[in-house]
Write a structure and sequence with these properties.
This protein is α+β, with helices and mostly antiparallel strands and about 90 residues long. It has a four-stranded mixed beta sheet.
Amino acid sequence: MAYNIVYKKSVHRDLKKLPKTEVSRILDQIEHELIKKPESNPVLKGQFAGLRKYRIGDYRIIYALMGANILILRIGNRRDVYKGKI
């Protein structure tokens, strides 16, 4: 199945907080690796129940599968990304 990647508006703010080299690496991974098998990544529990995570080094991408779309909700360092609300 071919997926489309959709970014929530707040993701742009998340990316501004990260180093530019990391941003390009993360976006490349999303475009080339995550899109292949997004359903194979772990499902989260707790306040993020039903969402999935994708790991890139110390960074995590929290996303939801919505039909043929992958909705990217948050991108951040693993110690900060699970704090707060989406």
